[in-house]
Design goal:
By secondary structure, this protein is mainly α. Helices cover 65% and strands 3% of the residues.
Length: 229
């Protein structure tokens, strides 16, 4: 009985990045590349900022229609993969373990260290507060860019979504563009950190180190029965 209880209470070993996370991570990377570059192609057909025009060398196809086709293709991959990722993160408790809690005093200290290039990341099993804020932020931006994208794609059919942006098609476009810019900024920071700390990139390929969930506290042993004299 004691042996069975000990086996049940023992911490469960697992990889830092399980196989489903790795598959979804790299699927998301491909989908984001398709979405961003094809979005730039669509943008060039009707620019928001007169001085900003993306070079043809980094966007797909010679015509705007090619950009639309690639954008819709990437959109379905991104949405389906995103739903799977969020579901997995919530169901397994990964979001709670890796992204929470976020403590403001520590966050401020981490930002100061980052600005001085002194922010350490020696332990890949623990995200610092800057990373946690960035990951939570990009998840929220991901939701907003999908909502604004749907409002732009079908403004009549999704009029309720368009109403979230004041009922203005142009406002939804601006929000969509700003969300894209935020995601591109996140990707630049994310890739830069991965190159500066290569073992984090390797971990997303191999699964990283084996970690163990904390073992539950042992149950109190029942007191032995006594008989009155």
């Amino acid at each position: 009985m004691a042996t069975a209880h000990a086996a049940k209470a023992a911490p469960h070993p697992r990889r830092l990045h399980p196989l489903p996370i790795r598959i979804m991570h790299w699927t998301n990377a491909v989908a984001m590349f398709i979405m961003i570059t094809s979005g730039w192609k669509i943008y060039n057909d009707d620019v928001l900022l007169g001085w900003l025009h993306f070079p043809d060398a980094i966007i797909p196809g010679p015509w705007a229609q090619h950009g639309l086709q690639w954008h819709f293709f990437g959109m379905w991959i991104l949405v389906l993969n995103g739903i799977a990722y969020v579901t997995y993160g919530l169901a397994t408790g990964r979001f709670r373990r890796m992204l929470l809690p976020i403590r403001l005093p520590i966050l401020i200290g981490n930002i100061r260290d980052a600005l001085r290039f002194r922010l350490l990341h020696d332990d890949p099993t623990q995200y610092n507060m800057v990373q946690r804020v960035l990951y939570v932020g990009v998840l929220l931006v991901g939701v907003l860019i999908v909502l604004s994208g749907l409002a732009i794609w079908k403004p009549v059919q999704f009029s309720e979504l368009l109403a979230l942006f004041g009922g203005s098609f142009q406002t939804a476009r601006v929000v969509h563009f700003l969300c894209m810019s935020a995601i591109v900024g996140f990707v630049v920071v994310h890739v830069s950190l991965a190159l500066l700390v290569p073992h984090t990139l390797v971990a997303m390929v191999t699964g990283g180190p084996v970690v163990r969930d904390a073992a539950p506290a042992p149950a109190a042993e029942p007191a032995p029965a006594t008989t009155a004299p």
